[in-house]
């Protein structure tokens, strides 16, 4: 997401969630040739191997990691699809939150939850740690100085970027086949979505805008823009200049001028369990918005945060959710 978000006091943890949705993806390295099946397990998976993470740090993975810590929601959601949970020595606290996570039920069985606590992580001393490319540099440096391997994952905002990072993570943990199976499932679902909405003429596609509590909307180069693209929906904010975190400042006057067919609102407001419903009521009752076609046609929808904020393979779930709301007759 991008835009003038710096004008508001946003909790640090929320900034982590915002940042997670918008940075460009890194490129996964090419897989090594397969080793004969008679070789030891680590050799079969291409170990030892040299890898370079998304920020250019080169490292050696000596053998197939059996103790893994994940410090970002993206790597949480990917790893729970790729590896036996017994190999996870810790996952981020967001992973176990049903509000934000798509793997909450599985993550609840993994202990401990690990926010970026250097002493706690060093005490566990895992084989590899996955962190985001925007993780706190000083803490990443402390872990590396302690002799730990930290692989920083790029934060994708496109389907191709997500696929690339899934494959990069899979190579590090020795689960290439599982990654290819996951990517294949993504592609099958994307193709089904394309069959459902792809024949809608451009001139007949619905326009939509997500409108959040600090008065911005997601522009291009954001996961939400990709969700709308996959769902066959036009992002009304896309033509406008986006700032930090992909946010386009959205005044009431501009929203009225754009008059989108559909308005999407947050399903959760950080730190306020009743905040999303209150904001929805505020929007619906605002006299300035009374004539908006999205309101008069009752096409104002709240989006669960685990779908709105995801930047992993669950982006497809978000796109399906949006497509079914916007084009119910296609399903």
Write the layout of secondary structure elements.
Elements: H1 12-19, H2 41-44, E1 49-52, E2 58-61, E3 68-70, H3 73-82, E4 88-90, H4 104-107, H5 118-124, E5 128-132, H6 137-145, E6 150-153, H7 159-173, H8 176-197, E7 207-210, E8 216-218, H9 223-230, E9 234-235, E10 247-249, H10 252-258, E11 262-266, H11 275-285, H12 293-296, E12 300-303, H13 305-308, H14 315-326
Parallel strand pairs: 3-4, 3-5, 5-6, 7-9, 7-11, 11-12
Antiparallel strand pairs: 1-2, 8-10
Task: Please explain how this structure is put together.
- The structure is a single chain.
- With 331 residues, the chain is α/β, with parallel strands linked by helices.
- It folds into two domains: 11-190, Nitrogenase molybdenum iron protein domain (Rossmann fold); 201-330, 3-Layer(aba) Sandwich (Rossmann fold).
- It has 14 helices and twelve strands.
- The strands form four sheets. A four-stranded parallel sheet has the order 4-3-5-6, with helices on both faces.
- Helix 3 links the parallel strand 3 (68-70) and strand 4 (88-90).
- Helix 8 packs parallel to helix 14 (315-326) and helix 9 crosses helix 14.
- The longest helix has 22 residues, at 176-197.
Overview features:
four-stranded parallel sheet; alpha/beta; 331 residues; Rossmann fold; 14 helices
In short:
With 331 residues, the chain is an alpha/beta fold. Helix content is 38%, strand content 13%. Strands 4-3-5-6 form a 4-stranded parallel beta sheet, with helices on both faces. It has a 4-stranded parallel beta sheet with strand order 9-7-11-12, sandwiched between helices.
